[in-house]
């Protein structure tokens, strides 16, 4: 900002934008996690039984909101017997 006067709010906003864009630089992206073990190696060691999945689905709270997939807990709970073996 150089002490200039602006004749419109749009010009003033543009000056602010130009100033802050020159001062602040975006941070480089950082990895979410680093690991020396591949994901495939980790998944090979996990054992899940149909009974465990059925128990988890059957105990879902139908009072909670759906997740990002949009599938309601009520649907998962009522279909747990069919879904668990998949």
Short précis:
With about 90 residues, this protein is an all-alpha fold.
Give a written overview of the molecule:
- The chain has 86 residues and is mainly α.
- The protein has a domain at 50-83.
- The protein is built from five helices and no strands.
- The longest helix is centred in the N-terminal third of the chain and has 15 residues, at 9-23.
- It is elongated.
- The mean pLDDT is 84.
Ordered list of secondary-structure elements with their pairings:
Blueprint: H1 9-23, H2 39-44, H3 50-58, H4 73-78, H5 80-83
Strand element count: 0
* Backbone CA Rg: 26 Å
Helical amount among residues, as a percent range? 40-55%
Largest beta sheet, briefly? none
**Could you say which structural class the secondary elements and strand pairing correspond to?**
mainly alpha
Shape: elongated
Could you list the spans in which at least 5 consecutive residues all have pLDDT below 50?
none
Mean pLDDT: 84
Separation of the first and last Cα atoms: 62 Å
Percentage of residues in strands? under 5%
Write down the secondary-structure element order: HHHHH
The DSSP helix count reads: 5
């Amino acid at each position: 900002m150089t002490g200039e006067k602006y004749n419109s709010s749009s010009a003033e906003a543009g000056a602010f934008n130009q100033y802050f864009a020159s001062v602040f630089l975006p941070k480089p992206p950082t990895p979410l996690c680093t690991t020396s073990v591949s994901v495939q190696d980790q998944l090979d060691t996990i054992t899940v039984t149909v009974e465990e999945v059925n128990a988890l689905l059957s105990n879902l709270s139908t009072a909670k909101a759906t997740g990002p997939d949009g599938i309601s807990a009520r649907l998962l709970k009522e279909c747990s017997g069919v879904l668990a073996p998949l």
